[in-house]
Amino acid sequence: MRDVAIIGVKNTKFGELWERSLRDIVVEAGIGAIEDAGVGGKDIDALYVGNMSGGRFVDQEHIGALIADYSGLSRNLHVPATRVEAACASGGLALRQAIMTVASGYGDIVVAAGAEKMTDVGSEEASSALAAAADREWEGMAGATFPGLYAMIAKLHMHRYGTTSEQLAEVAVKNHRNGCLNPIAQYRNEITVDQVLNSILVADPLHVFDCSPITDGASALVLAPAEVAHEYTDTPIYIKATAQASDTIALHDRRDITTLDASVMAAKRAYDMAKMGPEDIDLVEVHDCFTIAEICAVEDLGFTEKGKGGIFTEEGETAIGGRIPVNTSGGLKACGHPVGATGIKQAVEIVTQLRGEAGKRQVEGAEYGMTHNVGGSGATAVVHIFSRER
Amino acid sequence: MSVPRFWRNLDSRYNLEGTHCTECGEYFYPPRKTCVNCRRLGQIEAYRFKGTGEIVTYTVIRTAAEGFEEQAPYSLAIIKLDEGPSLTAQVVGSPENVHIGMRVSSVFRKLGTDGDRGMIYYGTKFIPADA
Amino acid sequence: MTIGIVSYGAYVPRYRIKIEEIARLWGDDAEALKKGLMVYEKSVPDVDEDAATIAVEAARSAVARSKIDPSRIGAVYTGSESHPYAVKPTSTIVGQAIGATPVMTAADFEFACKAGTAAIQACMGLVSSGMIDLGLAIGADVSQGAPSDALEYTAAAGGVACIIGSKESEIAAIIEDTYSFTTDTPDFWRREGMPYPEHGGRFTGDPGYFKHVTNGARGLMEKIGTMPEDYDYAVFHQPNGKFPVRAAKMLGFSRAQIEPGLVVPKIGNTYSGSCLMGIAATLDQAKPGDRIFATAFGSGAGSDAFSITVTDKIEEIRNRAPTVSELIKDPIYIDYARYAKHKGKIRLA
To answer: Is residue B27 pLDDT above 70, yes or no?
Structure first.
């Protein structure tokens, strides 16, 4: 198998993009990444696009073909295009498919994109579409919502480990602070712990400011074999590990409600593959769809012990300048969460950081970065490790 | 949810009809036709759960799922049945009385309706066991 | 052949609204209403309860009390004036939910407040003819009273299920005989598609309730040669606290005879469950050998009278399921706004 590098990246603006369609944003991200890589359409061997629910959000399936078409890769070039779906982990999985395509030699220049257009439907319809990532028959029929499922994780985490609502709020406060420094972020305003705690309760103990928003956005990466990466860019970023794990679709069937075993297993596989451990990672983008999800993630990825995620956050260890900066992009919480795009956006952020191009939110001297993308309440987890050096 | 999709699991929803693998002894609710431990070597039989258990964790949902608006706020819990498996269900009654570790027992309630003209979905919810 | 009640089960929702709270909204005189109706509070279903869920809970309680194998039940008849579907039986929901399906017959009954006792009579016929082994008869309602209408003070929720059988070793209360008195009397009705019933006001009294209850009761006593003093207990349909007391007096029954079964002051009129609720409350405390006289009334109009003798079996089964007084204790009082929400009076878009 060949080593793989990322040679081009692009995020669109994240937010409520009323004037732009799914095909508009994904073409912008794709072309941006291709330009960043200095390649042309005729160089592209394959396209993977992460998209959770085109069917529900814009009543459109066959997203791979659509995107290839509107990117100008179909009528003349006939580039193979594949949509990848694993709920909110669709983007991370699209990246993984692209990596495996290049590593195996089936393709050289491969695009991994992710996109979701969520605001073309009302928030009730959007919530219902998102809830389809859980077990519709045995969670949804009971009245479960996504905030409700993560609220149950939070409730038990608080009960068992003494995690507080203030500690959950600190995740949102920190991610908004980071979002302020990210030009593409949906929310670029600072918030306080009190603001989080005084916001509307969605599902006890989660307030609306504990939840990631509904977002439109697209992101794209261009991958190439590591041995030729320098032909395209001075700053290729290398893939050190790609790993994925599954768990039960329903939260109630998990071994432990407060641990995402899929995250633990994907991280273990990634660390083994990269021959490194959590202490080697300089920054990480984790899947903070809810504040409790970031608390669990820093535990499950091994940055702190199980149960200590709240204190770890409260003590500033996850802030820029802390022991392990988490979600410098603003995370899903402040940068926004266009579900299919998120996994790609996380990789774009890490590449930007490892290139040293992150501006005011730059983690100085970052050598190794990690992304952690979760589908549903933890039924799919994808972890990638990136490096500045091959 | 469509009528056939709901109807297919009626006994599971009404009567906590699940399954049991006689090979490894694990009980499954919601029912599984393939044992997660023994896989194709498992011996699956039908099993009706007693309907008693304990709350593992819960939340009070205030922004309701589509179709559940009339019931909000409602308590949603993960309940560990005495035979072993856990399920997600509502706990009826006052949300302030619900707590982790609480003993509960099953009751027959309306889960929801498909609008004014559609089907009425019935199934199992839980109440505090001492009630 | 001996026919009788093999088991019974009752269900009353936890929630109550007080007369004062309803009167507060409409500016009525609560004290005068309580005195006039002899009802102080009424049961209210939860947001997710209806006649079907109440019927299932009552039926499961009846099955648990007798420990019979539900597959022996050959007929399920549910009486209600608030069946959740206009077309699609409540009784199939009940049959499935208690495990009596598929070898059984089922249908829904409607006869205002006496649909449950009509179901008992149907089961008696099927059991005594040998067509079925056991029959399940249920009266369950989440009755509706239009806002500000007099009915709103009494229209309540609850249900009772009776398993009817003919094996002497199983019978907890022998039904010696039954007698019905029926005429076409439009004292109360609800047209198809209408949310609330209409009623004839004071016309519901003498030409409706009292004529039919007294004729039905006297008819049965004449038929089997009994007198009020032959009975330890009596139950009359209880649309409010006043009518059954007056009917008892007209027929020569004492206040003491009807007291144990008079549950309406605390829960209101449970319609198809009403008379059966009184019978259940009486069975909860009757001793072997005690005799119970019961007369149900349904607007429209008719009455079903029953003469019942309790057997030794009652002591064995009584405490295997909650009694009516256990179901009634520990209510949760709600205000009118919550009541309106629970009753679906608030329409979401």
So the answer is: yes
Q: How many CB atoms lie within 10 A of CB A108?
A: 17
Q: How many CB atoms lie within 10 A of CB C140?
A: 35
Q: How confident is the model at residue B115, as a pLDDT?
A: 87
Domains, in order of start, for chain C: 4-171+320-342 (3.40.47.10), 173-315 (3.40.47.10)
Q: ipTM of the assembly?
A: 0.97
Which domains does chain A carry?
4-122+215-237 (3.40.47.10), 133-212+240-387 (3.40.47.10)
Q: Are A143 and B68 an interchain contact pair (Cβ–Cβ within 8 Å)?
A: yes
CA–CA dist C200, C156 (Å, integer)? 19
> For residue B66, what is the DSSP state?
T
Chains A and B form CB pairs within 8 A to the count of 111
Please name the residues in contact with A133: beta carbons below 8 A apart, sequence gap of 6 or more.
A52, A87, A88, A146, A375, A376, A377, A379
Is C237 known to be catalytic? yes
Q: Measured between alpha carbons, how far is C251 from C258 in angstroms, rounded to an integer?
A: 12
Chain segment C70-94, per-residue pLDDT in tens: 999 999 999 999 999 999 999 999 9
Look over chain C and give the mean of its residue pLDDT values, rounded to a whole number.
97
> What is the model's pLDDT at position C349?
65
Nearest in space to C276 (alpha carbons), one of C164, C171, C120, C73: C120
User: Could you say which of A157, A176, A287, A337 is catalytic?
Assistant: A337
Check pLDDT > 80 for residue B130. Answer: no
From the CB of residue A93, how many other CB atoms can be counted at a distance below 10 Å?
Answer: 25
Q: What is the pLDDT of residues A324-345, one digit of tens each?
A: 999 999 999 999 999 999 999 9
Alpha carbons C246 and C210: distance in angstroms, whole number:
9
Give CA–CA dist A120/A125, Å, rounded. 10
| Sheet strands side by side (includes B17-21) | B27-28, B17-21, B44-48
Whether residue A253 and residue B1 make contact (CB cut-off 8 A), yes or no, is no
Q: Which residues of chain A have pLDDT under 70?
A: none
